[in-house]
Design goal:
The structure is a single chain. This protein is α+β, with helices and mostly antiparallel strands. It is built from two helices and six strands. A six-stranded mixed sheet has the order 1-2-3-6-4-5, with helices on one face.
């Protein structure tokens, strides 16, 4: 169906899914949480978790030969909308105009009780 993308520079999947899958010119990146791939530990606090999420996404995109500039849409999942401004600032520091589409939702719980998770849909040339 598609080609799996895997890098050791991002956390390994913690279930039956791939870090990302390429299908045609689309790349579907699974939701990333703030796990440091070198230690397996979850970062502490919303700032550190968001930064680690973005670094994990960046590593997967690079492995696939892509970048943030090719992301068509992100979905951000927050355990509390009170963290929206902080996440938005850090997330935005990784992007340049034109910005991708985005949805942000508050959820009751995330894997490993993290504070933020982000997935992406990418269009490669």
């Amino acid at each position: 169906m598609g080609k799996e993308v895997f890098t050791e520079k991002a956390p390994a999947a913690i279930g039956p899914y791939s870090q990302a899958v390429e299908i045609g010119n689309l790349l579907f990146v699974s939701g990333q949480i703030g796990i440091n791939p070198a230690t397996g530990e979850v970062a502490t606090g919303i700032e550190a978790q968001t930064t680690q999420v973005m670094e994990n996404l960046k590593a997967i995109l690079q492995e696939a030969g892509s970048s943030f500039s090719k992301v068509g849409k992100f979905t951000i999942y927050l355990s509390s909308m009170d963290d929206f401004a902080t996440v938005n600032e850090i997330y935005g520091s990784y992007l340049e105009k034109p910005y991708p589409a985005r949805a942000t939702v508050e959820v009751s719980r995330l894997p490993k009780d993290v504070l933020v998770e982000i997935d992406a849909i990418v269009v490669n040339d």
